[in-house]
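Need a sequence for this fold. Nothing fancy.
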């Protein structure tokens, strides 16, 4: 098998690379840092191709597909993304638009292009790295939450379309809570609750992906949080989220 991972130089993407390599899956790793990708490649005992591209730029997303469309990829893991803490009136517009381009547009394009390929071959897995934020609104992290809502809802809608077709192709949404990655540094904030290890998330996610689970939520705590949030009035959810995000913002 062969997997393509975007945002593979750190965090969940890097952990996915090591986990899949342990399962003898060949890899195509995509990120902006050549040095980090080279180090990962040298650590692994499977065939690894590295591609250095900034997927914020739409042309590079299509370029990536053109480079590897004949590689017989079996697994697409859309993982590249970032967040930005702050109230909507204060956050930088250009940075938010870059976030939308990476967190939504790149996911959307690659999902559509690879899904068509997988349907023709009647085989394939797509794992979109979403977030527990994909089920909520997030004051003081509003654009990030909105992007994750988009990808989460898109993924589960496509999953149902595939189910109705009786297709063997599977698409899953990985929706973890806080994970110990570079997210905080990039977003200029910090999580108020304990972060889980990305390797733990990767192993759990890949296990569930191969079992063709639609929604993949690591940890019982996050499962319970999402379940009970259904019974909390929306205005109260927003108030709680507003104060939680406020404790995260770097001074």
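Here you go.
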């Amino acid at each position: 098998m062969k997997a393509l991972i975007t945002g593979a130089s750190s965090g969940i993407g890097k952990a996915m690379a090591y986990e899949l390599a342990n399962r003898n899956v060949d890899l195509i790793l995509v990120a902006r840092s050549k040095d980090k990708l080279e180090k990962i490649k040298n650590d692994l005992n499977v065939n690894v191709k590295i591609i250095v591209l900034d997927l914020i730029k739409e042309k590079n997303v299509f370029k990536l597909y053109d480079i590897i469309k004949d590689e017989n990829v079996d697994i697409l893991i859309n993982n590249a993304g970032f967040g930005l803490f702050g109230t909507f009136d204060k956050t930088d517009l250009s940075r938010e638009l870059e976030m939308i381009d990476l967190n939504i547009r790149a996911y959307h394009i690659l999902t559509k292009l690879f899904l068509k390929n997988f349907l023709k071959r009647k085989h394939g897995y797509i794992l979109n790295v979403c977030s527990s934020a994909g089920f909520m609104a997030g004051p003081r992290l509003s654009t990030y939450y909105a992007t994750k809502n988009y990808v989460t809802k898109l993924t589960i809608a496509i999953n149902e379309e595939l189910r109705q077709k009786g297709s063997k192709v599977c698409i899953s949404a990985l929706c973890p809570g806080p994970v110990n990655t570079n997210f905080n540094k990039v977003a200029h904030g910090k999580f108020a609750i304990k972060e889980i290890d990305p390797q733990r998330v990767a192993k759990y996610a890949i296990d569930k992906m191969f079992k063709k689970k639609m929604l993949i939520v690591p940890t019982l705590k996050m499962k319970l949080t999402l379940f009970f949030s259904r019974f909390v009035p929306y205005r109260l959810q927003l108030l709680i989220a507003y104060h939680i995000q406020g404790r995260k913002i770097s001074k």
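For context: The chain is about 50% helix and 15% strand.
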